[in-house]
């Protein structure tokens, strides 16, 4: 179901996690993690209107979802694959939610492509045939309902992946181009390469000497 009402910045509990990829702003609403953005990430704060210029004044950092997310990030950056055993909720339209749900099914240490995601989403939306025997207006309506939906475009999938509001927790960094290249990450290609190296078991140093990202 499409989420029609988004919480606003004033509704959110905010905390900052400081790690090897710079600070990450975490946002929670009602004990549920709803946002996670890297420093200077594209679409920072969307769709809630969180202003990166003021997030340093973190509030309600003791929210249980924020504490759980902070601990999860510590474990993840240490090289483990911690379970997502706390609630997440991404706010978006129907298609975005389908794409983000598909991202959660891409296992740790693996990758997929925009094309493969598009194929999987197309297959999910296919409807069974079987209205040919009906006639008249009822038959026309049934045949339209039974007709397969149009294929999902990899480009549109990329649009939704890039607007994932819960970076890292919803692993959009595991999506590659058709050629296997690393590109198109809202948090920056350097971060995407770092995360993939970490998940492949390679030892990697932090991108920032100062974890504040300055």
TrEMBL record:
Skewed-composition ranges (Low complexity): 135-149
PROSITE patterns: MGMT (PS00374)
Limits of the Methylated-DNA-[protein]-cysteine S-methyltransferase DNA binding domain: 94-200
Keywords noted in UniProt: DNA damage, DNA repair, Methyltransferase, Transferase
Sequence intervals crossing the membrane: none
Region Disordered, annotated ranges: 121-149
Domain of life: Bacteria
Gene Ontology molecular function: any one: methylated-DNA-[protein]-cysteine S-methyltransferase activity
SUPFAM superfamilies in the cross-refs: Methylated DNA-protein cysteine methyltransferase domain (SSF53155), Methylated DNA-protein cysteine methyltransferase, C-terminal domain (SSF46767)
Alphabetical GO biological process terms: DNA repair; methylation
Keyword DNA damage applies: yes
InterPro entries tied to this protein: MethylDNA_cys_MeTrfase_AS, MethylDNA_cys_MeTrfase_DNA-bd, MethylDNA_cys_MeTrfase_DNAb, MGMT_N_sf, WH-like_DNA-bd_sf
Catalysed reaction, written as an equation: a 4-O-methyl-thymidine in DNA + L-cysteinyl-[protein] = a thymidine in DNA + S-methyl-L-cysteinyl-[protein]; a 6-O-methyl-2'-deoxyguanosine in DNA + L-cysteinyl-[protein] = S-methyl-L-cysteinyl-[protein] + a 2'-deoxyguanosine in DNA
CDD domains linked to this entry: ATase
Biased composition (Polar residues): 122-134
PANTHER family in the cross-refs: METHYLATED-DNA--PROTEIN-CYSTEINE METHYLTRANSFERASE
NCBIfam families for this protein: ogt
Protein's UniProt name: Cysteine methyltransferase
Species, as recorded: Pauljensenia hongkongensis
